[in-house]
Amino acid sequence: MNASNPDRQVDVCVRGAGAVGGSLALALSRQGLRVVLQQGPAHGHGPDVRAYALNAASVSLLRSLRVWDALPADAVTPVHDMKVEGDAAPGALSFSAWEQSVEALAWIVDAAALEEALDAALRFAPHVRRVGLDQPVDAPLTALCEGKHSATRQRLGIDFDLHWYGQRAIAARLVADRPHHGTARQWFRSPDILALLPFERPQAGASYGLVWSLPEARAAEMMAFDAAAFEQALNEATGGAAGRLVLGSDRAAWPLGLGRASRFSGPGWVLLGDSAHVVHPLAGQGLNLGLADVQALVETLSSREPWRGLGDERLLARYARRRLGPTTAMATVTDGLLHLFAPPTPWLRELRNRGLSLVDHLPGAKRWLAGRALGL
């Protein structure tokens, strides 16, 4: 699938400049593999207000790549407690790191800071060379980390079943008039889902990353509001649970969907991250799935038989089988939760809210749910 270029010795070509592609290039280089990382031009669309919720497995991978400890202190916030509310009493559910006997339920990370740390690490990686997307590269294995609109995946003829939810996510940074104490908050309501992720920027100890999933028309209306009108709607939606909230950044919005490629691997190629699967952000698991793809591929390649090449179709099928179950399960959970809380039907509304309260009183069920989210 790549143009011939015999005078360049390359083991793996990684296409994609995001956190998944950068992490994969670093991890493969640590195995001594020669990696070419193909990146497109940087797109400047204003400040990056995205925030990632990373689980323990993702943090472990980034730490092994010497990226985690290079992050600025104010770019990482541990989540010690999480409070989930439905759209009516008695719907409420809470989790705590203490109950789960873990250091944190998750770590909220500034997306731009993570990508900067990865970029810095790649500059010093001895076996990684970076080139443009248009430069031909001849490698036994090409790893596609280009995102849900991957052009290379399309050229390979791989189907990608992408179902749009008719929703958009609005993201922003917020500042509260009281400390967050490491508590994340989430509201599941008909027809929106609102999450407040504790953060240190722009104000240490009292900031949040906002992810608010809304129907398209309502999202467009909210994006058109001036700051005062948006803040009023936001504070009405949160009911003062996190204190008085004001905008600390511009707002950004993007469409939400559910998607999966028909195949994750083939002769000489693999898909990772959003190139392979896309889920709703309500569980904050998008990047965690992508970094789990990285870990699985690295382990698959490192354990290959000496006589088997990096692009061997059967070898890469091992990776695909390993990732099919977890990604399908997460897609099913996020899609199911979205559809459970979307309908305004009175009897369903009461059932789902009572269900939240029931789970809150079942320690075993809470541990299981937390374990899936933490990657344990």
UniProtKB/TrEMBL annotation:
Residues 10-77, 130-326 form the FAD-binding domain. The lineage of its organism: Bacteria, Pseudomonadati, Pseudomonadota, Betaproteobacteria, Burkholderiales. This is FAD-dependent monooxygenase. Keywords: Monooxygenase, Oxidoreductase. GO terms for molecular function: FAD binding; monooxygenase activity. InterPro entries: FAD-bd, FAD/NAD-bd_sf, Ubi_Hdrlase_CS, UbiH/COQ6_monooxygenase. It comes from Aquincola agrisoli. The keyword Oxidoreductase applies. PANTHER family: UBIQUINONE BIOSYNTHESIS MONOOXYGENASE COQ6, MITOCHONDRIAL.
